[in-house]
Amino acid sequence: MPDSTSLAWSWNARKQPVNPYAVDVPARKPSALAVWIALYEQDKSDQREQAEAMSRAAEEYLFSVAHCDPWHYDELNDALIEKAKRHAELHRVDPLNLIRDDVASLPCFLRKPLETRIKYLEKSEDPRHLPTYLNEVITPSLVRIDKVRANQASLSFQAMAGRDSLDQLLRLAELNQREVKRLSTLVAAHIDMIFIQLCGEMLTDELASPIVILELYRRVAAEVSRLDVIPPGYEALRSKHNRRNPINYELIPGALARMRCADWWQRKLWQLRNEWREELLRAACLVHRHASPYVSHDILLQKREQRRKAMDFFRNHDLINEDGDTLSMEDVVLASASNPAHRRNEMMACVKGLELIAEMRGDCAMFYTITCPSKYHATLMNGKPNPTWDHSTVRKSSDYLVDTFAAFRKAMHKKELRWYGVRVAEPHHDGTVHWHLLCFMRKKHRRAITELLRRFAIREDRAELGNNTGARFKSKLIDPRKGTPASYIAKYVSKNIDGRGLSDTVSKETGKSLRDSAEHVTAWASLHRVQQFRFFGIPGRQAYRELRLFASQATRAMKTSKPGAPVLMDPKLDAVLAAADVGCFATYIMKQGGVLVPRKNYLIHTAYEPTVEPGIYGDHGIRIYGIWSPITGKENKICTHVHTWKMVKKAPANPGAESAAQGDPVAPWTRGNNCPLNQKISKKEMLTDIATPEIMTPRERMGALDVSKLPAKERRAILRRVTEVSYNKKKAQAHVQSRNYSPLEVLLSDFASSVGIQLSESMVNHLLNGKRIRYGDRIYYATHDGELRSFDLDNSDVQIRKLWKTLEKHIKVDHSKIIRDPLGHYLHRLKKIDLRTWQLLSGKIKGGKHV
């Protein structure tokens, strides 16, 4: 090799080739980016190996522990023992590490807020804060969480979760909305399987008695109640020894349809999931005045998002009646009692009316506060766990107050004591319920009523109070010189609705503005289903609302009448209507009959009627019809809801943009036509064009239909009808011409026509196959010689047929298939829902392998 000095430039010299196997070759220094990439790849590789190792370990432990190599089995055990020894040594050196590990094992919604608090205390200047928090708050909270979990998952609930594919029920509080939706589908499929199995066992005859159908419902309801869910119609259909009214068998089809519906289960399981989650957060001391008063941050954000979605839904929909009149759904909601401002104003007007009546009668006003015993309170005022809490839920504290109030009322009526007023239910800082009552009574009854109420309020766990009963019961006589009864209750009404006028008032319990905490209170009431306000001893407020609605309708209809002219013929009823129209609750109550009057003696009541169209479960609900009076009788009801309103989606603000988004006809990008003659279209789209003419104006009805302005679904439905009509006619004609009827079919059809019965081809086939059909109120069957015979239906047969018809119409139950082959019918439905479970049940998979 020539020397580099004899070359013109040093880089012209030949370079030594790099030998990759030589050890003396200096390694090139990697860049910072290459180092980060290598570390990232190494982390991914480690995670992959760890996941594979965990998968192999799980497989060995769960499926093939008995068949694995004994030496390998001992090696795995030794590794686990060494790991446990290291953790035990760390816990011995620093016991706080054990608490940290227990916190790390909690679900995410519990672990994150606790770890955030721990990290905050680690940065504290005082080193005593963290050990104190871990020992005095976290340690008892972990014990409380375990006990709350045990109370939530009862033995029957665990047995239900042990069924195939239902193990996620034990993790219900940790699931998100998507997982709850999937779980609800599996639960509905399980209930459907139970229903089909019971149908095969109990409904051996098509004409089963109503008693058998009722027993079928009760068995399915017993399976549903194992999941801590109250079955629909349970109180009306369960067996009672002292039943006053006969059993309404028409409730059974709708109840069975609900229990087999995945959407119904999704609502129930989501409500149960939120309640479980909230109770676990209360057990972890995350719901109190220093963390989140009344309700957790999780539920607060969820309710806030729920309200936002509801308002968006209202803004995007209208209400339209049969006359074509349209109302904005948002305006209707804001004009109703759902508006917090209207709700607060109506309530304060009612309280003011009670105040005026009490002043007229010479009654005194008392203000009471009733609190639950200490065992219902989860957290102390300083944020630490309450050692006397027995893991009672918020709902149990509400039920305790309801039961106490009911027992007090019975004792009060036995002593012939009477009162009237309003009660307000609101939460403590940890979510426990307590009541405030504004009551009016005779002055001579004040001491007796107060002493009786005090005795019932403190009778449970009396020893914990000692001589000071103020923690459980407080009473105060309202002095008119210091303030009116309405002024006493105004703060509690406002703080539990929207906090109007309380922005400068700070709560003594939470230390926050009452206006800011109003959102927490409404979310708390919505989650735990607590009735916040309740009036007693006065006429109902729904009749008051219906009277005001009728008065406005009468004013519009009687434009030519003089002001103040009577609307109703009876002067007593017209006086009640006039009092409600001007908004004077005191006059309205007195004209209705006064306070402390039995409900049946009021002059005007709210009238109800069943809905015309059945719901999605096939049953008819109850809606408000108007008003009626015992003076005129129920047959002379006054209708205040004349029109039937339907909800429709609002038209887009820019029709051109919406049409383009929905797919207006454009030039094809290929030379062939990609649209087949027989388009696949859903039944829902086929029915959209039927309702279109109902919302057209009279001018549009007279003119031609502008197809370009219709939505895409309706255009596809019209195209389907236009392109298939001629094809279906030709196909039907060809079918008729090619069909050769047997002599027995012709004979049976002619015989039916002679007696005035028109049978279709399918009905003739059913009769010739030995089946029976119902035509009118009679059952028909065919003989072997083509003669048609019939017999009457008794009442039980009519009821059973009605039940089966409702089940077939709304939940697609084919009772003939259920009776013949219940297992095959269920497997056919299960295959569409869960293929894996279908394969396991049908024997396609054995031992984890496909057969």
UniProtKB/TrEMBL annotation:
InterPro entries recorded: Replication_gene_A-like
Residue span(s) of domain Replication gene A protein-like: 179-500
Coiled-coil ranges per UniProt: none
Biological processes, Gene Ontology terms: DNA replication
Positions of region (Disordered): 653-673
GO molecular function: endonuclease activity; hydrolase activity
Protein name: Replication endonuclease
Organism expressing this protein natively: Klebsiella michiganensis
